[in-house]
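Thought: the user wants the 3D structure for the chain below. I'll pass the sequence to the structure tool as-is, report back what it returns, then summarize two notable features.
Action: structure_tool
Action Input:
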Amino acid sequence: THLASPPMPDVACVSGDYRAKLGESPLWDPSTNSLVFVDIQTSEVCRLDVASAAVSTRPLPHGASCVVKSAKGGYLVATGVDDTRTGGRMVRVDFTRDAGDGFGDVVGDVFDAADELAGHVTNDGAVDPMGRVWIGTKMPRPRPAYVMDAESGAFARDEANVPTAALYCLEAAWKYGANGLKAVGVSQKIDEVGPVTISNGIAWSPDHKTLYYVDTPTKCVKAFAFDVQTGLLSDERIFTVVGGGCDGVGAPDGVCVAEDSSVWVAVWDGFAVLRFDAHGELIETVDMPVSRPTSLAFGGEDGKTLFITSCSYDASSEVASVLEQEPLAGAVFALKTDVKGVEVFASHF
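Observation:
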């Protein structure tokens, strides 16, 4: 249920009248002074021209869950493999080409819709400093997978209800095709992470030695030691808990990191973006005019503007009803900050 919106003096709507149903995966493109993102519910790749507040869109037939930059040109979008939107693959999207020609080149499969994960779909993703693409999945009908101890407040996985989603990593490889040799992405499941229910935010520390990771129903932002050369993860730990434990309000969704090592987290159903220091201590709360901020990315001319996507979709309500309560739900927001975001990398394929 969407709640009444609190006043919000610091965050500005920068998308005009545009409202996404489920905006996600914002990505700043300095070459065009624009923000690229996806609307998961409408299966569209979107580009916001910040100067004019105009949003252009490209529909994808099999879903769109996240977007990343590609060193080979354009953007890579995670999508399904057929009309069910299940399974996972990466396709190239190029806004400089005509709509009919600007997408559809498959550059790598994340997982097969016909395998043991039937019904699973891709969700959030990011690119590491070596050009590998990390993409998580979510279960078709997620169920509570954690139970909380009434005395300690700690929570642990419910072994009777083990989730089956996962985190994947795609690395560049060469493939022979009709037009000769081309770079593609080859996927592997990351066994060090999970089981996973709803894979969401993925980000790296400024020194690339830590990977931050969100599985939303756990209410946790996890941290892993990261070997940038090999991509291996180790030493899993809880970086911070968002939403007051299993029964609290709100849960972590997207994450991004600034050059000062602060970690910024969008809180789904929490009317907030939270900023944590490198030790996981809360240092700033950014009140939002919408209950469901989804993800966030630094950008702008100086790299110090935090862009935030949001959601107007509620499975239990009509979008029009949601917008009556929260007129800005689904908008893209911008917040001027005192820090720059870390470098955003492009995939090698």
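Final Answer: Structure generated. The first strand starts at residue 12 and ends at 13. The chain is about 0% helix and 45% strand.
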